[in-house]
Amino acid sequence: MVGRPLRPNKSSDPTVKKGTWSAEEDQKLTAYIRRYGIWNWAHMPNPAGLARTGKSCRLRWMNYLRPNIRHGNITKEEEDLIIKLQQLLGNKWAAIAARLPGRTDNEIKNYWNTRLKKRVGYKNKLQIPIACDIKVKPNHNNGSSHPYACLPTIDTPKLEAGIGSQNEIPTMSENSFCTSYGVQYDDKTSENSWYSPCSVTEEEERLREQFLALRDIEIEENFCGMYMHSGATDPALVCMQQELVYHSGSCQDFIMDLWGK
DNA sequence: AATCAGACCAACCGCTATGCC
DNA sequence: TGGCATAGCGGTTGGTCTGAT
User: Fold this and answer.
1) Which residues of A in 42-61 have their CB below 7 Å from strand B's atoms?
2) Which domains are assigned to chain A?
3) Closest alpha carbon to C1' of B7, residue
4) What integer pLDDT is reported at residue A124 of this predicted model?
5) Whole-number distance in Å between A42 CA and B6 C1'
6) Nucleotide nearest to A109 (CA to C1')
7) What is the pTM of this model?
8) Which residue is nearest nucleotide C6, judged by alpha carbon to C1' distance?
9) pLDDT at position A125
């Protein structure tokens, strides 16, 4: 983008420059970081000879100047991966970017908002739910209020037809006492959100929060494991190969172990 | 050639997380 | 333990580009 005028400065410091970075500024920042490294963004602009905020310098470096940034079109493979990771992780752009070597969170966010959101949003409408559907595993032994009776099970994201079929997951019966969580699609935001068809107790909510936290760990571990044992050199390729399938069974076992202790 | 609308994307802002004293 | 400084993240803005009319 060229010649972007300065925005109104709410903090109104006339000595701080805003707007598009010039080639000279880029050169100054790059040269300074190469020589002294990154030690403190807030105190860097002055000695680097830049009339910018540290925040602005950091953003410019992270999104444009730092080495190994891939400038250029997003490939079809990257696009597919973004879509799948967004369905899996939500709008965690930094986390998604970490799985696409050379791509920045800002770039992926922009790409999603301008190109993929509408397309995928429409697709989501046709196959709701996309996000993980937490259900309650009935306690077949006694049907009591024992914590195991409220143990949530997880429906794998419907990334591909045939993956994570609802039939594979034990689901609650209509007269079960526990709450089922589902996902509903919001037209305005193009996002999926949680809903509960019946009342949710604080305990159930707490359990769900714990489960979601554990699920995040599981996702990270699955990814690392896939990458480390695949022999591949590019994490993006590993993701494509493995389809980032999220193993509901192992996740349940993981939680069972935890509660059992 | 001029105009317009939508797409694109760099950069800003506000908020939260983290680290340090 | 609380307060402050810094880093990082995600949402939003608005100027430029581009294709259609």
Assistant:
1) 52, 55-56, 59-60
2) 23-65 (1.10.10), 73-261 (no CATH)
3) A114
4) 55
5) 38
6) C10
7) 0.55
8) A42
9) 52
pLDDT at A14: 65
- Beta carbons within 8 Å of A134's beta carbon, 6+ residues apart: A152, A153, A154, A155, A180, A181, A208, A211
Q: Are A38 and A60 in contact (CB under 8 A)?
A: no
pLDDT recorded at residue A41: 92
Take residue A137 and report the two structure tokens written for it. 């595993």
- Can you give the pLDDT at residue A122? 57
Query: Tens digits of per-residue pLDDT, A135-180?
Result: 333 333 333 322 222 223 333 333 332 222 222 222 222 222 222 3
Structure tokens at A114: 């301008």
Residues of chain A with pLDDT under 70: 1-14, 121-261
Res A114: pLDDT? 84
The distance (Å) linking the CA of A46 with the C1' of C17 is 34
